[in-house]
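Backbones bend. Our protein:
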Amino acid sequence: MWLYDELYSCPLIVILGSFKHEGYYGWSVLPVASLRVSLLRRSGEWRVVSNIREALWFERSLEACRSIIKGSTRTGFIELDLAVNASLYGGFGIYTEIQGDIRPVTLEVIDTSVFKFYLKPKGKPREPSEGSLSDWILLGLGLREGLWRLVADACSRLGRVTEESCIIEGDLGEVAITAGIFSEAGWLRVIPDNTPLRHVVAYTSTPR
């Protein structure tokens, strides 16, 4: 067993899509709790632990975690900046860039008792789906309230709807949101992260 003094645990961040609105540009983001990178420190030594197999996914999560440890929310790379900021909040998030900073527009806690999520790797990163801000907000509302009709309505314009599944082209692959049974081959079952990154510091009580 490797004992540690401090731990940072960061989720994989998937960029679901983007939008343009009144001169502003923004993105919708999904943190994945079940795929993550953890950095453990003991006496100045750092150790990396991860269950992410895809090299690109691992690299994004690792660099985001390192940036958070350094206290840096801007790296010069928008995908990494979004990963850093989304890790600090959790939930389905819509973000925009204002005065050089990434700021949340809306943050929604996903009803995971209703919706299940799947991710299909697609090799090299791609441009995520572009949609309207109103549709991304509608999608977030449906995810929060557990209302499939809202999710399907938004998804009909943001991606495609098949029976009880919404499929959106994210930057790391296709993301399926379903309120029913999803049994297609080649997809990973993933769990959204509704909470911020985990930061644990060991505490030792010294008797007086």
Q: What stands out?
A: The mean pLDDT is 91. The first helix runs from residue 55 to 70.
